[in-house]
Amino acid sequence: MLMKRHLILLIMSLAIVFGGLGISSLVLADNKDEGQSDQEENVLREPLEMEVTLQRHYIDGKFEENTHTETIGAMEDFWSYYHGWQVIDQKEGKIVFRKEIPDISPYLKEKGYFGLKNDILTIFNGRPTHEQVIQSFYQIDTSELESYQAKQLQDGIKIETKEVYQYVLEAFRDMTPSRSVSN
Question: Where is each Bypass of forespore C C-terminal domain found (predicted)?
Fold first, then answer.
């Protein structure tokens, strides 16, 4: 009886040892395959050349677009770099991003002036005397203007900041001509 127990324990021990060796060799073989697969992926993964187009849309309606070629080593880095940009179009080797910029365009900051053309509040490329219109907004009842306001609009109000842009649009909005409603 004692001998039988020892024999059973010996058989069970051998089964556990050889079973464990078999499992560990399977795990090692699986890890070896994964390692080879990782090496193969690294060999296959070369930097990717991508044509990247960036579109910036400003509150004054202006779009700016520039395109450049970018070498991408890791896609994760690429996507994190353009965090906050919206993908507009993506094709093989090309991608277009757009970003809404809560400011006026650099172009308007450099060249934009508010003024009047035919009693309509207008943004000009340069002073209003040059009459190069960029954008028109709404008609103003010029009889409601203070003399200094009329002079400012005649000479041109330089648009240097978003705040000036918004202030002028709001300040003159209340001076739109009232329309009488007839029956």
Answer: 103-173
**What is the DSSP track for 138-181?**
EE--GGGS-HHHHHHHHH-EE--SHHHHHHHHHHHHTTSPP---
d(CA 50, CA 42): 19
Q: What angle do CA 81, 82, 88 make, to 5 degrees?
A: 160
The pLDDT of residue 87 is 95
Domains within the chain, CATH numbers bracketed: 48-101 (3.10.20.420), 106-173 (3.30.70.1740)
Each residue of 6-53: pLDDT tens digit? 666 667 666 675 665 555 555 555 555 555 555 555 445 678 899 999
Task: Return the number of other C-beta atoms located less than 10 Å from residue 31's C-beta.
Answer: 10
Tokens 């000479």, located at residue:
155
The Cα 109–Cα 92 span in angstroms is 37
